[in-house]
Design brief:
Bound molecules: zinc ion
Radius of gyration: 21 Å
Strand order of the largest sheet: 2-1-7-6
Shape: rod-shaped
Number of strands: 8
CATH superfamily of the largest domain: N-utilization substance G protein NusG, insert domain
Helix content: 10-25%
Distance between the termini: 71 Å
Order of helices and strands: HEEEEEHEEE
CATH topology of the largest domain: mini-chromosome maintenance (MCM) complex, domain 2
Mean pLDDT: 86
Number of domains: 2
CATH class of the largest domain: Mainly Beta
Structural class: alpha+beta
Length: about 130
């Protein structure tokens, strides 16, 4: 075998490995955390892997209870006037959002994992 051929094979192997790594990263964009924003400001970020419920209370008496269960997130309770956020059901796809328009609250899923030090707030009182 010539040196050129070895280089070619090595190059192909490296290219295949790179493709494999890229596909791993792309598949890894699956939702990893739940992000809640109020009027565009992030108030909560939690791992999707942790089953819990988060109560978001606002000064005007608005309450939303967001539940994380089995890798999915949904609006468990809300005292908004239309109740549309509850009817939006469960989501586990990062492309979807749950919006509570009367409360200016948005629940999103993010592919980014959470830094450990962000994990100390359970209830946000605004
Ligand atoms: Zn709502």
């Amino acid at each position: 075998m010539k040196k050129k051929d070895i280089l070619l094979i090595a190059g192909l192997l490296i290219a295949a490995l790179l493709l494999y790594l890229v596909s791993l990263i792309t598949l890894g964009t699956e939702a990893a955390s739940v992000v809640v924003t109020l009027d565009g400001e992030e108030v909560l970020r939690r791992p999707l892997a942790v089953e819990d419920t988060y109560e978001i209370r606002q000064e005007d008496g608005s309450v939303n209870v967001i539940a994380v269960e089995g890798g999915e997130v949904y609006m468990a309770q809300a005292n908004c006037r239309d109740g549309l956020c509850i009817r939006q059901g469960r989501m586990k796809n990062a492309a979807k959002t749950i919006v509570c328009l009367p409360h200016k609250l948005v629940v999103k899923l993010s592919g980014e994992p959470i830094a450990q030090e962000d994990n100390d707030l359970d209830v946000i009182i605004q």
